[in-house]
Amino acid sequence: MVELLGAVVSLAAVTLLGLIALLLISVCVLLGLAGLAASTRREPQPVSRMPAA
Length: 53
Prior knowledge:
Oligomer: single chain
Mean pLDDT: 85
Low-confidence stretches: none
Helix content: over 70%
């Protein structure tokens, strides 16, 4: 019984760590995509301002 409990606890810990890792990866990917979108949006503005200045 103790071995079964240990196996169940280890499986639960691994699944929780996996879910947390997936959440962190998804958040990092979303932040990266948001940063890329923001950088692509900000790029044309300085280019249009440079010739005017």
